[in-house]
Amino acid sequence: MDLELLKFQEDDFDSYYSLVSNESVMAQITERAIPYDEAKVDFQKLLKRNEKYEKYGSYKVYDCFDETFVGLGHLTLNEKQISEAEIGYMLLPEYWGKGYGTETAKKIIEIANQLEIMVLKAIIDPENLPSKKILSNLGFESQEFCVIDGLSGEVLSKKI
């Protein structure tokens, strides 16, 4: 599989909304689908973050074979600790269990390797065993369990 990551642009809202409005996708992220008006506001914030840095931000993930939208990957700088960044990804359900999560995470790590980052972190729902497996296979180790915005989270990290 050959994936391409391109930063989200103004005309990509429909792709973004197809993810965040999907209950299955959001079940282990926010535990709820995001309504249209809220998604519009969130998308504008995403675009502003994308403009701030060349490499950090949220990327749309495409399968180059048939040019289909697969999901979102992000690399977010920890502005309080600039040697750290967070990675994350969301995929449409039809791409789950087919290697797209692993390939997306690898692509994000490739971007991070071009930057002056020493530690990558990922925050997942502790119940999301497929994501934990992907990250563990890529060298991430569990650091702590916590509560973020009222939801259970597990922080994994990797030195690069």
TrEMBL record:
Domain (EAL) ranges: 1-160
InterPro entries hit by this protein: Acyl_CoA_acyltransferase, EAL_dom, GNAT_dom, N-acetyltransferase
Pfam families for this protein: Acetyltransf_3
Endpoints of the signal sequence: none
PROSITE patterns: EAL, GNAT
Domain N-acetyltransferase as annotated: residue spans: 3-160
Protein name: RimJ/RimL family protein N-acetyltransferase
Organism field: Sporosarcina psychrophila (Bacillus psychrophilus)
